[in-house]
Description:
By secondary structure, this protein is of the alpha+beta class. The protein has helices at residues 13-26, 39-62, 109-115, 143-151, 167-173, 215-224, 236-254, 282-305, 318-330, 341-346, 353-363, 405-418, 425-430, 434-461; strands at 66-67, 74-76, 86-92, 125-132, 155-156, 161-162, 181-191, 197-208, 211-213, 263-268, 273-278, 308-312, 370-374, 468-477, 480-485, 491-495, 497-498, 504-505, 518-527, 532-537. It has a five-stranded mixed β-sheet with strand order 1-8-7-4-3. Strands 14-15-16-20-19 form a five-stranded mixed barrel. The protein has a two-stranded parallel ribbon with strand order 2-9.
Amino acid sequence: MSRARLSSFTAPPGPVVAVLAALRERYEIPAAGAEGFPDDALAEAEAAAAAWEADGAARLLASGARDARDLPLVTIDPPGSMDLDQALSLQRLSPAAVPDGAPAGGGASALRDAVADPGAGEAAYRVSYAIASLATFVTAGGALDAELARRGETVYLPDASTPLHPPVLSHGAASLLPDEDRPACLWTVDLDATGAVVAARVERALVRSRARLDYAQVQAALDSGASLPDPAPADLPALLAAIGELRQVQEAARGGISLPAPEHEIDHDGEGYRLAFRAPVDAEGFNAQISLLTGICAARIMGACGVGILRTMPPTTEEDQRRLRRAARALRIEWPDPLPYAELVRGLDASNPAHLAFMDRALTLFRGSGYLAILPGGERPADGDAQHAAIASRYAHVTAPLRRLVDRYGLEACVAACAGQAAPDWVVEALPGLPETMSSTGRRANAASRGAVDAIEALVMAGHEGEVFDAVITSERDGRGEVMLREPAVVGEIRAAKKTDGSRDGGKSSGALPVGEAIRARLVSADVEAGRTRFELAD
């Protein structure tokens, strides 16, 4: 993965570890690793892993699961990842031919019709997407199940992550590690030549990943033709790019949005912790489209069978969009009236200060995400309801069950529906409470992660008070704004500098901070305990 503006400013390990320990205590986050799990939950996980290693593959096949070990699946994740939720295999189909194997779109015709895009043509591509099968290892109502509900999701902090599942599962028996037989929920999605969905289904399967790849390897293959390590399929990068680009076109057509903003990350080496802005490479965007595709198909299946759980986000209001157009004018970004917002953001360049500021404003359009349970016998959402505004479609979380609790339930609802069966009782019984569980645990994880970044920013800046940095102001309100430094990778609060008479000067006759312009910012204070860095405009 490419990195931009890696900081030379370093936060020493000792203070960082102390800050992170305090965050874990404040938000009641369990200790990292296996030691954070109750003994009975850990014992269940270890027993389930041992049972799989003993004869799990044979029992899975005897239950009627598909043997899909012939598929040339690979995983694509950040370097060093062990909790591998997804493995994919991509095919280009010959005209009017579908290869041997489980036919995409099996099941009732009503289900097939619900999954397919209107007007989709003949299948031209096949996406095989294996997702870790956690239901194989977790006993409903057991001690481990109760602990998973308490955790909700994996919490990532710079020194170590607090996993949703014990490492014996998340880094072992349930992870789609290479050269290991693993249980999976195997999606088979056929697309036509435009990337539209022709058919989709999911089934329990036994799979075997061929290789563990990272984004840099795939991107290098796309950029320079570099070879992937054997035995990864040589045509994978080209097919990923082809399908990814088609799905990006489909996303634009339905009004979906993927902002190309840089990501804020924390790097750790032997010397300490450094902050970086990382620009995602194209391969990440293409891979993300496969996950989005699967979530869209899952939501359609759930809607058709009348059971499941959707990820939702309300649409933007007209006032929100008018406010964003005013911001575009202020930042001198040309936005013709007929141009849809989704197309505008695709042309933005995160290296342009004005564009970066606009991206920051644009993110405020998409708020209020949540979950909506669809219950058997209950009222089903109308076709236009329960949408995810940023994706511009119904959508469900089903591709990260090792790291997110809700995915296990969504997957099992879809597996049952595609097999023509009712969803398991344990899924149906849990659905009413899942939205609140995911909401509360998500808030906790986000608060801890944000607190870690804020504290490390302050640690990095401590001792540099009075120094001046190149920066861009991304937002402003009532003389107070948010500033992003170019080096080090810090985001903080900024105010206009005080004049000699005690008033503040924003650098413009209006007194407003110059949003979207390259400026010089002077560090006023770095409060580690509060996790706050404050700057003022330098002369």
